[in-house]
């Protein structure tokens, strides 16, 4: 790799400024579009994107400020648009001449800005608060990090020392900040604050062995508890209307960690704030949230943001349609991979092959369309009859975790239901959307463990949480709480409910596990389940599941006709046997079954097979009804 | 405080009498250039006070006097200064006032600063002293021409507008306490587009000019009147009501109107306008205006030349009220999938505390951008501006919602094109069918139910009978859907909830009476008791969708009685007693008690709801599985196509949801049909017919409530047609739909006849008749037994069974006994029956 090729990675601002300077004589040059195009073109080159270091796997203090980095993230919150100086005039300290400068992709201006200059151009940009994709599984992270070819400079070279100094400055600043912060409150300091500060310090002095957890005094607002990684203020310069909350993106942008960004407010002395109401009127919380220290929440000025249709590192980055060679090769293998996956899953589901089949269907389900309020394609599975011994559900979840890119295990214990925040809520004093566990990226697998539920009292929050889960399952939407009103956000989350009896939550499909193992041997059996298959096999499964979800699907007129006939016939024999709702489900099962076999249109065979497995499942349910009698 | 909308002409007329006098606003709003970007546009026509700019920045007070004295050189006789003393504002230090504050005009009424316009001082300004004089001169001359232009433009209308304006002023002064004149910008525009453009582009220069004009006119008319302060002009309704999302750098320093919801208000902030300094040595005092948020403290006393002897005297300094208000986009304006934006608004003086968190408002003001202040300790600055709006005018859009109907609030702005499209749609003969099929297209058939819901969405016409003592008539249509589980009732509800702007969705299972009505809670921050409203109140003027109606507890349901007929909600909790409006349509869905609908039973028996509640529903529909082959086939086809049709195909087939929503909103706002003569006749006939059906068999088949329902439905149908008149076809459809619903829900399963008493009394007439027969039979039996004072219960039942040819259930027997007990014929104690008398 030639160093010159890396100029656009190491010093992207140089490129931008060069273009800006060149455009000065020509007002209609459209240099902004050209600059974006330049980076897009470079990134399109083979493997070019792997040279760009990623915020997800490189610790922040290893990255060079103002270099090009990438970030795989979810838009957690959208802040208000901000106006900035797109072009401004500054006095050059050496020549004393006024020069025009470009303010795009930057947070701070050079010294000597002439605020009253007539040449100033105000421009607008939008800030998104982005967090790493919630529930991203370790194998995804490792795989992405492994494929990265970015050169993170080793600590002996020149760059880190320079960087180190900048960090010391940062640290000094921080110290100052905290001191300033402390002065006002005379009471005892909260231990967390001290701890947080100490944490920062230690990070500077110690060898950066691993990514430290975010300092505890700043809530980084991750949707799921226990998440790690940097969150980022992403500044978008164009087409921000196209982004939606909870979109997953891969962002390429210029990293900005200038210490000047860290809550300017803290540095204000009391006298100036008295007379400058524009600044003192924002609450301290709001400032903390909107201008957190750049060392914790770096700013990223977007050059190029790519929506991620999936988050599977094993799949080629191009869309399936563009990659026909890949598509055709995978399609032909799908049936065999499916068979393998079935044999892999069956023992985990206690030898129940039918349940394993339904599990596969569930794992590839996807809300592909909405008809007015009705989400199409969702397939929430309720796996009842789960043994409660030997933490079966946890083990089971570990398997799922190995297979899907992102997932979350939610033990539905009373405590969790009553205390966790599921639904994101707007905090008006800090002016941000406080995240909740249901703010998840599309196609995240949500594993609800109902075996954890014990008798007890659900309080108001608990009832609300259960309602939210119910809404999520039935309508695939979450009503975010905006205090004065609610706002509905559609989502696309695969919910799998493991329960002993029928779940208290609604589901599209319930299947009762038929264990082939007798209870006395259960524990022994469970501990012997082979949880860790070979990596190559796992990778095959992972690819298979992601591809199956991305396929297109159609139904020919012929098959439509035969499905209709079938339905009419079934109703003729016994109107009670099949309702419209059953037909809905059967159509979804047939769709998923075809896709799981790599068929992109419904065949007569698949339809019959779907009918068959539905029949098996229903007969099992009826059996089960007779057995325990408390079914509806 | 909205004054009668003024004719724009009047204000302008005033201005022609004061060419190029500096307004009293002069010093507070020095000419500020458009700072960024669009400087090319600054050149044209900026009307601006033409006082020498250098004076404005001068901190010395005394010379201000000449500059700031009344803008009226030729003024009608002004009141002398003693009035000044009596003015309420003057209690503090009258001498200082007279001496030279810019606020006390020579005439009796003091001017009041307009910080809403003036706070531009904190923005970067063209430093006039350092700027080359040529530029300065250019600006002045430009503004001169601008101002003259304005005057010329308005001059023509003096004669015509004078009369009107005088009347306006008189009305406005007598009605409104605050000397504030609200001006609808649209009127300005229709009067003179050029003036309007200037108002929008240079509000901070034009509005003071307006002020001046109004004041002159006023004091010319009423030279003796004294106001609290001089009249201020408050324009509103600028340009179009803009969405917060559309604000961009081009709007900076322009007059804008945006709508939003208040989410936070700060405490009152006293903002210093002018600092009062007194020399510690010689007691010489001086005043310094606050400039860009700073006070230049004079270091040398001009009287005694002592250095650093001046100290600020706070209680003689001048402060104005200020409040930060945060507003957020209203949820209706939001694109899907994004979070709402917020904007900071500063309210000044009497606008402080005008709005509360939760209010929906339209705010007119000047959009400002201020660069982040440079930090002295940092060499570089954040290159970001802070934006806010200086509020000039608030208009609460939901102000009257709790007490009455606010027509304005409900008004949604429709573009001409949209109205045209809607009218075209309305002109189509099959508009009713079209709309009903556009409703929840994913749900198959159930045409009549959809039609019913459609009429519910439109609602009847509101009528006020409070004069005759009956209060408001309910205009909202209530609908109950019952039927087998899995017949997409919930889906229909969800659809409606998503369609209407003010919809609420609750489930009977999860909601308590409290969640439906209102509850009192302590605000965690202020520790105040606040009333939190529940779903029914929130859906005032909307639709409240209640799923699982049958699972609702009795106490919860009882709340609905009041709501569904009186449309109010009375609350007496924690010392808060009030009556809230709940003019909501209820769309409820209930499942039969035995999970499957039993066709052998009546509606009441199937859903076990009290008939008192049922009779309040205008339409009760059964959603049943029809179980017929052709239907099955169509259903299957519909469902399968649902699963493979592409989005575009769907779009083509059905009306867009947005169009439907607009159509309904338009009709609800603008169409208010009245009954025509023929329609009234038809309604009367229909009602009489309904009564007749029953009377033949000795039962009542219609009550006045049904007549009211018919009227509502007919009106709603007229609204669908955008017709201002209810005609016979509307009545026909109402009748048909009503009959259809009755056929489904009020058919007596024993006789097959429609029997309204099932819904009104909970028992069909046949059942009642049967009960009486049994009671008579029992009485005969007992009489036949002769004089036996006490009988065994069981024995009696068996005897009766043996005697009767019909099967007598225990319940029936019990009822018969009770009926006889009511007649005082016998009493039942435990297992024995005693005869009385």
UniProtKB/TrEMBL annotation, chain B:
<dbReference type="Pfam" id="PF21128">
    <property type="entry name" value="WHD_MCM4"/>
</dbReference>
<dbReference type="InterPro" id="IPR027417">
    <property type="entry name" value="P-loop_NTPase"/>
</dbReference>
<dbReference type="InterPro" id="IPR001208">
    <property type="entry name" value="MCM_dom"/>
</dbReference>
<dbReference type="InterPro" id="IPR031327">
    <property type="entry name" value="MCM"/>
</dbReference>
<dbReference type="GO" id="GO:0003697">
    <property type="term" value="F:single-stranded DNA binding"/>
</dbReference>
<dbReference type="GO" id="GO:0006271">
    <property type="term" value="P:DNA strand elongation involved in DNA replication"/>
</dbReference>
<dbReference type="Pfam" id="PF17855">
    <property type="entry name" value="MCM_lid"/>
</dbReference>
<dbReference type="InterPro" id="IPR033762">
    <property type="entry name" value="MCM_OB"/>
</dbReference>
<comment type="similarity">
    <text>Belongs to the MCM family.</text>
</comment>
<dbReference type="GO" id="GO:0005524">
    <property type="term" value="F:ATP binding"/>
</dbReference>
<dbReference type="InterPro" id="IPR027925">
    <property type="entry name" value="MCM_N"/>
</dbReference>
<comment type="function">
    <text>Acts as a component of the MCM2-7 complex (MCM complex) which is the replicative helicase essential for 'once per cell cycle' DNA replication initiation and elongation in eukaryotic cells. Core component of CDC45-MCM-GINS (CMG) helicase, the molecular machine that unwinds template DNA during replication, and around which the replisome is built.</text>
</comment>
<keyword id="KW-0547">Nucleotide-binding</keyword>
<dbReference type="Pfam" id="PF17207">
    <property type="entry name" value="MCM_OB"/>
</dbReference>
<feature type="compositionally biased region" description="Polar residues">
    <location>
        <begin position="63"/>
        <end position="79"/>
    </location>
</feature>
<dbReference type="GO" id="GO:1902975">
    <property type="term" value="P:mitotic DNA replication initiation"/>
</dbReference>
<dbReference type="InterPro" id="IPR041562">
    <property type="entry name" value="MCM_lid"/>
</dbReference>
<dbReference type="GO" id="GO:0042555">
    <property type="term" value="C:MCM complex"/>
</dbReference>
<keyword id="KW-0539">Nucleus</keyword>
<keyword id="KW-0378">Hydrolase</keyword>
<dbReference type="GO" id="GO:0017116">
    <property type="term" value="F:single-stranded DNA helicase activity"/>
</dbReference>
<dbReference type="InterPro" id="IPR012340">
    <property type="entry name" value="NA-bd_OB-fold"/>
</dbReference>
<dbReference type="GO" id="GO:0005634">
    <property type="term" value="C:nucleus"/>
</dbReference>
<keyword id="KW-0067">ATP-binding</keyword>
<feature type="region of interest" description="Disordered">
    <location>
        <begin position="1"/>
        <end position="144"/>
    </location>
</feature>
<comment type="subunit">
    <text>Component of the MCM2-7 complex.</text>
</comment>
<feature type="domain" description="MCM C-terminal AAA(+) ATPase">
    <location>
        <begin position="431"/>
        <end position="639"/>
    </location>
</feature>
<dbReference type="InterPro" id="IPR018525">
    <property type="entry name" value="MCM_CS"/>
</dbReference>
<keyword id="KW-0131">Cell cycle</keyword>
<dbReference type="GO" id="GO:0016787">
    <property type="term" value="F:hydrolase activity"/>
</dbReference>
<dbReference type="Pfam" id="PF00493">
    <property type="entry name" value="MCM"/>
</dbReference>
<keyword id="KW-0347">Helicase</keyword>
<dbReference type="InterPro" id="IPR008047">
    <property type="entry name" value="MCM_4"/>
</dbReference>
<dbReference type="InterPro" id="IPR003593">
    <property type="entry name" value="AAA+_ATPase"/>
</dbReference>
<protein>
    <recommendedName>
        <fullName>DNA replication licensing factor MCM4</fullName>
        <ecNumber>3.6.4.12</ecNumber>
    </recommendedName>
</protein>
<dbReference type="Pfam" id="PF14551">
    <property type="entry name" value="MCM_N"/>
</dbReference>
<keyword id="KW-0235">DNA replication</keyword>
<comment type="function">
    <text>Acts as component of the MCM2-7 complex (MCM complex) which is the replicative helicase essential for 'once per cell cycle' DNA replication initiation and elongation in eukaryotic cells. The active ATPase sites in the MCM2-7 ring are formed through the interaction surfaces of two neighboring subunits such that a critical structure of a conserved arginine finger motif is provided in trans relative to the ATP-binding site of the Walker A box of the adjacent subunit. The six ATPase active sites, however, are likely to contribute differentially to the complex helicase activity.</text>
</comment>
<keyword id="KW-0238">DNA-binding</keyword>
<dbReference type="GO" id="GO:0000727">
    <property type="term" value="P:double-strand break repair via break-induced replication"/>
</dbReference>
């Amino acid at each position: 790799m030639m160093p010159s090729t890396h100029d656009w990675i190491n010093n992207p601002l140089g490129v931008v400024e060069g273009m800006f300077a060149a455009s000065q004589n020509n007002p209609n040059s459209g240099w902004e579009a050209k600059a974006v195009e330049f980076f897009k073109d470079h990134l399109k080159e083979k493997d070019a994107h792997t040279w760009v270091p990623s915020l997800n796997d490189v610790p922040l203090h290893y990255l060079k400020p103002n270099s090009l980095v990438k970030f795989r993230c979810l838009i957690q919150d959208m802040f208000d648009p901000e106006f900035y100086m797109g072009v401004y005039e500054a006095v050059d300290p050496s020549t004393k001449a006024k020069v025009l400068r470009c303010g795009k992709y930057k947070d701070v201006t050079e010294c000597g800005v002439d605020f009253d200059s007539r040449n100033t151009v105000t421009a607008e940009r939008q800030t998104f608060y982005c967090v790493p994709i919630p529930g991203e599984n370790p194998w995804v992270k490792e795989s992405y990090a492994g494929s990265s070819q970015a050169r993170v400079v080793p600590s002996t070279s020149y760059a880190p020392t320079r960087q180190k100094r900048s960090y010391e400055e940062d640290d000094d600043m921080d110290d100052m900040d905290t001191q300033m912060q402390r002065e006002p409150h005379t009471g005892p300091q909260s231990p967390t604050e001290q701890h947080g500060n100490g944490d920062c310090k230690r990070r500077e002095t110690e060898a950066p062995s691993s990514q430290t957890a975010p300092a505890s005094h700043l809530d980084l607002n991750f949707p799921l508890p226990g998440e790690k990684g940097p969150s980022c203020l992403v500044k978008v310069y164009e087409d921000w209307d196209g982004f939606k909350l909870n979109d997953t993106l891969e962002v390429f942008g210029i990293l900005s960690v200038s210490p000047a960004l860290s809550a300017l407010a803290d540095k204000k002395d009391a006298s100036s704030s008295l007379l400058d109401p524009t600044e003192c009127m924002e609450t301290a919380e709001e400032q903390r949230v909107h201008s957190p220290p750049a060392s914790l929440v770096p700013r990223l000025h977007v050059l190029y943001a790519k929506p991620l249709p999936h988050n599977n590192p094993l799949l080629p980055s191009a869309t399936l349609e563009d990659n026909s060679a890949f598509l055709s090769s995978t399609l032909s293998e799908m049936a065999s991979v499916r068979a393998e996956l079935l044999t892999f899953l069956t023992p985990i589901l206690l030898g129940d092959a039918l349940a394993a089949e339904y599990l596969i269907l569930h794992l590839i389900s996807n809300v592909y369309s909405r008809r007015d309020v009705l989400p199409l394609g969702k397939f929430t599975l309720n796996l009842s009859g789960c043994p409660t011994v030997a933490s079966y559900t946890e083990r089971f979840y570990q398997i799922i975790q190995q297979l899907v890119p992102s997932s979350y295990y939610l033990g539905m214990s009373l405590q969790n239901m009553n205390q966790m925040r599921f639904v994101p809520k707007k905090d008006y004093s800090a002016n941000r959307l406080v995240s909740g566990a249901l703010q998840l990226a599309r196609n995240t697998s949500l594993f609800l463990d109902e075996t954890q539920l014990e008798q007890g009292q659900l309080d108001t929050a608990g009832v609300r949480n259960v309602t939210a889960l119910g809404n999520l399952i039935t309508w695939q939407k979450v009503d975010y709480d905006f205090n004065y009103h609610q706002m509905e956000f559609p989502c696309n989350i695969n919910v799998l409910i493991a329960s002993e009896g029928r779940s208290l939550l609604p589901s599209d499909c319930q299947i009762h596990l038929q264990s082939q193992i007798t209870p006395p041997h259960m524990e022994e059996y469970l501990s012997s389940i082979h949880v860790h298959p070979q990596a190559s096999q796992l990778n095959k499964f992972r690819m298979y599941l992601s591809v199956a979800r991305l396929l297109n699907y159609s139904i020919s007129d012929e098959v439509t006709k035969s499905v209709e006939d079938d339905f009419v016939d079934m109703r003729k024999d016994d109107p009670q046997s099949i309702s419209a709702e059953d037909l809905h489900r059967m159509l979804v099962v047939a769709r998923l079954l075809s896709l799981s076999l790599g068929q992109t249109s419904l065949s007569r065979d698949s339809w019959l097979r779907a009918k068959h497995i539905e029949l098996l499942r229903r007969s099992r349910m009826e059996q089960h009804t007779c057995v325990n009698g408390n079914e509806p | 405080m909205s004054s009668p909308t003024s004719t724009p002409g009047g204000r302008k007329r005033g201005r022609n009498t004061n060419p190029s006098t500096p307004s009293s606003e002069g010093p507070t709003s020095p000419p500020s250039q458009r700072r960024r970007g669009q400087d090319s546009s600054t050149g044209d026509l900026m009307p601006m006070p033409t006082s020498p700019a250098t004076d404005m920045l001068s901190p010395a007070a005394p010379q201000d006097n000449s500059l700031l004295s009344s803008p009226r050189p030729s003024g009608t006789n002004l009141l002398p200064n003693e009035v000044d003393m009596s003015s309420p504002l003057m209690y503090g230090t009258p001498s200082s006032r007279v001496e030279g504050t810019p606020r006390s005009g020579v005439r009796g009424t003091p001017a009041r600063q307009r910080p809403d316009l003036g706070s531009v001082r904190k923005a970067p300004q063209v430093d006039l002293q350092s700027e080359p004089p040529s530029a300065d001169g250019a600006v002045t001359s430009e503004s001169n021409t601008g101002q003259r232009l304005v005057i010329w433009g308005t001059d023509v209308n003096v004669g015509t507008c004078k009369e009107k304006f005088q009347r306006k002023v008189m009305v406005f002064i007598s009605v409104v306490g605050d000397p504030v004149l609200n001006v609808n910008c649209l009127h300005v525009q229709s009067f003179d587009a050029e003036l309007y453009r200037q108002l929008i582009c240079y509000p901070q220069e034009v509005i003071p000019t307006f002020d001046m004009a109004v004041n002159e006119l006023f004091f010319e008319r009423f030279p003796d009147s004294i106001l609290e302060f001089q009249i201020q002009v408050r324009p509103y309704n600028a340009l179009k009501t803009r969405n917060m999302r559309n604000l961009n750098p081009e709007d900076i320093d322009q007059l804008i109107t945006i709508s939003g919801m208040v989410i936070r208000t700060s405490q009152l902030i006293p903002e210093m306008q002018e600092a009062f300094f007194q020399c510690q040595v010689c007691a010489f005092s001086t005043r310094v205006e606050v400039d860009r948020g700073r006070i230049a403290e004079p270091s040398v006393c001009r009287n005694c030349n002592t250095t650093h002897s001046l100290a600020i005297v706070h209680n003689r300094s001048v402060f104005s009220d200020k409040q930060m208000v945060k507003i957020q986009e209203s949820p209706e304006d939001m694109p899907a999938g994004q979070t709402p934006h917020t904007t900071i608004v500063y309210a000044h003086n009497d606008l402080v505390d005008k709005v509360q968190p939760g209010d929906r408002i339209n705010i007119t003001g000047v959009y400002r951008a201020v660069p982040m202040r440079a930090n002295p300790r940092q060499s570089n600055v954040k290159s970001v501006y802070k934006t806010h709006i200086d509020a000039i005018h608030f208009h609460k859009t939901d102000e009257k919602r709790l007490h009455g109907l606010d027509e304005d609030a409900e008004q949604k702005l429709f573009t001409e094109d949209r109205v045209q499209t809607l009218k075209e749609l309305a002109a189509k003969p099959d508009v009713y069918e079209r709309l009903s099929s556009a409703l929840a297209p994913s749900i198959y058939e159930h045409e009549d139910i959809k039609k019913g819901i459609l009429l519910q969405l439109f609602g009847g016409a509101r009528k006020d009978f409070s004069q005759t003592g009956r209060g408001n008539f309910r205009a909202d249509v209530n609908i109950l859907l019952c039927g087998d589980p899995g017949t997409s009732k919930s889906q229909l509800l969800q659809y409606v909830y998503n369609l209407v702007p003010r919809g609420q969705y609750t489930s009977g299972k999860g909601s308590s009476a409290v969640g439906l009505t209102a509850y009192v809670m302590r605000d965690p921050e202020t520790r105040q008791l606040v009333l939190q409203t529940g779903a029914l109140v929130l859906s005032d003027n909307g639709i409240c969708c209640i799923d699982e109606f049958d699972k609702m507890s009795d106490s919860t349901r009882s709340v609905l009685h009041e709501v569904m007929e009186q449309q109010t909600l009375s609350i007496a909790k924690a010392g808060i007693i009030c009556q809230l409006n709940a003019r909501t349509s209820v769309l409820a869905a209930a499942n039969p008690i035995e999970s499957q609908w039993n066709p052998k039973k009546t509606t009441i028996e199937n859903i076990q709801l009290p008939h008192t509640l049922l009779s309040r529903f205008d339409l009760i529909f059964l959603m049943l599985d029809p179980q017929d082959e052709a239907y099955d086939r169509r259903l299957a086809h519909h469902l399968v196509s649902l699963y493979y049709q592409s989005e575009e195909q769907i779009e083509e087939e059905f009306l867009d949801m947005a169009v439907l929503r607009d159509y309904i909103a338009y009709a609800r706002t603008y169409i208010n049909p009245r009954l025509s003569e023929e329609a009234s006749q038809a309604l009367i006939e229909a009602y009489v017919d309904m009564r007749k059906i029953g009377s033949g068999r000795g039962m009542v088949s219609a009550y006045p409530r049904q007549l009211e329902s018919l009227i509502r439905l007919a009106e709603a149908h007229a609204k669908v047609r955008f017709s201002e008149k209810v005609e016979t076809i509307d009545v026909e459809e109402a009748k048909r739909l009503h009959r259809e619903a009755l056929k489904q829900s009020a058919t007596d399963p024993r006789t097959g006849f429609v029997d309204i008493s099932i819904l009104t009394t909970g028992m069909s007439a046949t059942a009642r008749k049967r009960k009486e027969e049994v009671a008579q039979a029992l009485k005969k039996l007992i009489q036949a037994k002769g004089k036996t004072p006490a009988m065994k219960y069981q024995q009696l039942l068996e005897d009766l069974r043996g005697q009767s040819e019909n099967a007598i259930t225990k319940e029936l027997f019990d009822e018969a006994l009770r009926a006889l007990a009511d007649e005082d014929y016998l009493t039942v104690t435990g297992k024995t029956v005693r005869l009385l008398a």
